[in-house]
Amino acid sequence: xxxxxxxxxxxxxxxxxxxxxxxxxxxxxxxxxxxxxxxxxxxxxxxxxxxxxxxxxxxxxxxxxxxxxxxxxxxxxxxxxxxxxxxxxxxxxxxxxxxxxxxxxxxxxxxxxxxxxxxxxxxxxxxxxxxxxxxxxxxxxxxxxxxxxxxxxxxxxxxxxxxxxxxxxxxxxxxxxxxxxxxxxxxxxxxxxxxxxxxxxxxxxxxxxxxxxxxxxxxxxxxxxxxxx
Length: 229
Description:
By secondary structure, the protein is an all-alpha fold. It has helices at 19-35, 38-45, 50-73, 91-102, 106-109, 114-125, 130-144, 147-159, 178-190, 196-224.
């Protein structure tokens, strides 16, 4: 979980002037709904159990395998290819976190929840819909490099992690300045050559991505946070 995509740095504009502003404004309510879910709130408040955090990392693993395998398929696509950056990939970091949290046999100890299976399947379908893939890419990675940095600090404090153990997922040393990365990402969104139909599809898919993320939280909440589902 990443407090998915990015929070507005100022009030959401009434009349967005760029596509990135339009996307952020159109999905802000979905962002808030995901962040306000009981499981997400427990994570952000530092009250989530270590078992709950571990469960979330496991579900991330299955989602990011789907996302990054699909991204490699679209690396040369004129729409999606501009967002493909190997240094963004999170699966190796998730493997390190799961080895720390669960041990060498972590692969035998995790499985995707029903909501995660649905989410991963939707991402895989985007191999045939590049603008839809951009929607999922934006929702995940822009959240990881913005709100995810807060989660990294909360988790380190709540679970006593040291030297980055258990939070490798949130470390983006290969990106350099994270604010500069986010600005460049918005510039790539704004430079997309999309007609109105494709632009509307990207916005709609981003809203669906938030919904699918919230459903993953609900599955986790039923297990780890009583009353969160």
